[in-house]
Amino acid sequence: MTPPESPREPVFTPRLQLGFGLLAFGLGLMFLAGKVLPAPVPVGIAGGISLAIAGFVVVVVEALRDPPAQPDKPGTPGDERSAPDSR
Q: What stretch of H or E contains 54?
């Protein structure tokens, strides 16, 4: 017996892709500016840190967002529209 099919949610949403891209690019820029170049470039290191932090924030905010409501299942818990009227 197979489990009932639930609609699939995309794992890597566009915002999550942006966040991981910023994180990777920031870390790469920081490494390039600090270790690869003959003389460390403080602006590059600071820019890499800033981009990596921004990417990390985007990833965390996207992970904490509520999943989209499923309109085809009106009786799901936490759905305000299916709650009985308490007037």
A: helix 42-64
Task: Indicate whether 46 belongs to any domain.
Answer: yes
Does the residue 45 lie in any domain? yes
**What pTM was computed for the model?**
0.66
CB-based contact 54:18 (threshold 8 Å): no
Within-domain flag for 80: no
- The token pair at 51 is 């981009």
State the residue range of the domain holding 57.
Answer: 14-65
CA atoms within 13 A on the CB side of 48: 17
Does residue 73 belong to any structural domain of this protein?
no
C-alpha span between 68 and 71 (Å, rounded): 9
- What pLDDT, in 10s, does the model give residues 10-67? 788 899 999 999 999 999 999 999 999 999 999 999 999 999 999 999 999 998 987 7
